[in-house]
Write a structure and sequence with these properties.
Length: 263
């Protein structure tokens, strides 16, 4: 076939491409996910209405993740009980957020050297604004260090051990939790109400079950993979320190292990 005929055939193929984009799958008006993969059926019968509020400082990259857990909080809690601010540095000249961060009843959930176990906070002194940084560990660390308004806040941490139910995403260590799980644990303590664990976690289970049924695999933590020589990348200094801390914990079980937010 001559070059001219090949070129003509190519142009003909291009001419047959439909001008209109393919039709998108219908989206759920609540979670904004395709209806076939919607997890809204697993939400609480009525949105839970805590006395306090969850305030997410969300890295812009999180919004692009299809399997993020923050939307489960925003629709699982009553209107106004989950506020989301996007950015890499806060408060970004936002008067409302400035007021929240300066409030004496605002608590930053972040495992800094100044953090105290959240169990030490007196719930009767609330209601509290619980501030969470929503992003990967490197993103959360960068947001914290670039947002000086966060440094002087009362800071709390989760110290009970456990394994994340977010099994379709790799966590840095065995004690890391998703944004949803971190908020659930904190709310359960501050509100003294186990309904947050019992009801708000169900959408995450549905999401994971659907993904596993359609080709996803269970992810072990980086800690597990490294210990079993299955992790192909070099690890950073922070993760190396966390693993050493885990080794020390095995030697001394009386020392609590921090739960950390990774999503």
């Amino acid at each position: 076939m001559s070059e001219l005929m090949l070129e003509s055939a190519a142009w003909e193929d291009l001419a047959n491409i439909p001008a209109d984009p393919p039709r998108m799958r219908p989206l759920c008006i609540k979670c904004c996910r395709p209806v076939q993969v919607c997890w809204c059926s697993a939400l609480p019968p009525e949105p839970l209405n805590p006395a306090g509020r969850i305030v997410l400082l969300q890295h812009p990259a999180e919004e692009k993740r299809s399997l993020r857990t923050a939307p489960m909080l925003s629709v699982g809690l009553a209107p106004g009980k989950c506020l989301i601010y996007k950015g890499k540095r806060f408060p970004r000249h936002d008067h409302e957020l400035e007021t929240i961060l300066a409030d004496e009843r605002s608590l930053l959930l972040y495992p800094s050297a100044n953090s105290v176990p959240i169990e030490q906070i007196d719930p009767s002194q609330g209601p509290y604004n619980l501030i969470l940084i929503d992003g990967t560990w490197p993103q959360a660390k960068a947001i914290y260090h670039s947002s000086t308004a966060l440094h002087g806040m009362r800071q709390v941490k989760l110290v009970s051990s456990g394994t994340s139910s977010y099994i379709i995403r790799t966590q840095p260590t065995e004690g890391c939790l998703s944004t949803l799980e971190t908020a659930i644990e904190a709310l359960s303590v501050l509100e003294r109400d186990d309904r947050y664990r019992e009801q708000l976690l169900q959408p995450l289970h549905v999401l994971c079950q659907y993904q596993l049924a359609n080709g996803a695999v269970t992810h072990q933590s980086k800690e597990f993979l490294i210990r079993h020589n299955q992790y192909p990348k070099l690890i950073g200094r922070r993760l190396n320190r966390l693993l050493k801390h885990a080794d020390n914990f095995k030697d001394d079980p009386s020392e609590p292990t921090e739960r950390k937010n990774s999503t």
